[in-house]
Amino acid sequence: MAKRRLKEDGHFCCYICSRTDELQVHHLIYYMFANLVDFEKLKEFCEQVDIYGYGRLLKHTPIMTIDDIRNMMVLCQDHHTGTSDEIGGSTGIHNLPLGEFMMQKLARPGCNPIPQDGESFEEAMERVRQHQKREEPDNG
């Protein structure tokens, strides 16, 4: 039901990179914790982290299940489970702290500090430094 609604409402692309292939629906609060969730707290959280506007739209509707559309985020394979287990780790939400994961969406173009497939952390930071050098104005 939630997946169909996300498609109908035009949200069926990766939240991070906008890809439209290899898509998966991620639970913001993981399915494995469904029996531990205080649904009123989940509703409040989803109203604060309202990425698609459903928190505002459904504000007067209680959340009764972890599968509620307000608890969903569409991600491509790379941003859901990650690109690989090689050097540099992964780009997926299951493998990164939330702040690092969100930098993939929020970083200026060319400044994504998260190592991509096969890239070490040091290589990623060098890529960012090189990009920043190109952006610096010439004061000479």
TrEMBL record:
Which stretches does the entry tag as region Disordered?
Answer: 114-140
In this chain, composition skew of type Basic and acidic residues spans 124-140
Query: Per its record, how is this protein called by name?
Result: HNH endonuclease
> Which species is this UniProt entry from?
Paenibacillus oleatilyticus
